[in-house]
Amino acid sequence: RLYQIPFEMPDCEGESGTRTLHLIGDFSAPAEFFVTLGVFCFLYAMVALVLYLRFHSLYSENKKLPMADFCVTVCFTFFWLVAAAAWGKGLSDVKAATRPSSLIAAMAVCQGEEVVCDVGTTPAMGLANISVVR
């Protein structure tokens, strides 16, 4: 929800005034889908672990239970792939929206011919990239 993040920009009209701008974009849906699916996968893994360890005889005697377990695992695997792809796309959109050159281009004060705008530091996205790889 980048639109909730404000940042200050010098006002072109006044010497000491500033204007509050907000980033553009809401990329929370892919992240929420990724996290929700991860929680559901964890909960299912805990239930399956209890079933395998505590009720092993029930699992081995009933022929439908292993097939149902297999089908649920295949569904979770497919949705995990979809969620990882969605989160990867969401992350690339967040990177594009927060790219320093994009932010400078959106600031009216930086559009003057004699004005030099500097971004300072580039945002660190290493941990976000790792979250997509996992």
TrEMBL record:
Keywords: Glycoprotein, Membrane, Transmembrane, Transmembrane helix
Places the protein is found: Membrane
Entry's Gene Ontology cellular component terms: synaptic vesicle membrane
Principal location class: membrane
Transmembrane segments: 33-55, 67-87
Keyword Transmembrane helix: yes
Family annotation (InterPro entries): Marvel, Synaptophysin/porin
Membrane topology annotation: Multi-pass membrane protein
Domain spans labelled MARVEL: 1-134
Superkingdom, natural source: Eukaryota
Similarity annotation: Belongs to the synaptophysin/synaptobrevin family.
Annotated protein name in UniProt: SYPL2 protein
Gene source species: Urocolius indicus (Red-faced mousebird)
Phylogenetic classification of the source organism: Eukaryota, Metazoa, Chordata, Craniata, Vertebrata
